[in-house]
# Entry
Amino acid sequence: QGRRLSNYRKIHLFRLGEEHRRYHPGEVMVLHQEKWGKIGLAICFDLRFPELFRKMSQSGVEVMIVPSAWPTERLDHFLTLLKARAIENLCYTIGVNKVGKGGNSFPFTFGGHSAAFDPWGKKLGELHGKTGILTVTIDLTHIKKIRKQYPFLECRVLG
# Structure
């Protein structure tokens, strides 16, 4: 509907891309409450830091969305980390990845493969290296059932 729902500033800057020279990192985790559920936001390199996603989970997030620019040569990392964040936090995780060539400051080819995973790490859908629209069904009652049947998050003893 053309309205901004939330603002998020990337917390973990990608030093190999010299982002730390051009940007100031965000300092605040961003959660957004919709009528249907709670969303957590992260950007690209943030995906490598599970602590951020655990904090989201502890705050009641049910869906984590991660827009990204992962190069083709590290696509396996992107998909594996999305799946891991879904499993370890028992929530839906959606990664939206750029497709095509980067600019002069970031001369990589981005591989796409936007994907969505359910709380068990089951891949619900993936765009295989192309642009497009990925439609998946998210059932928030599924999360509640899994979290009740397997209360893994309640067993955590550190931090």
Notes: The longest strand covers residues 63-68. The two ends are 40 Å apart (CA to CA). Helices lie at 19-22, 50-58, 75-89, 140-149.
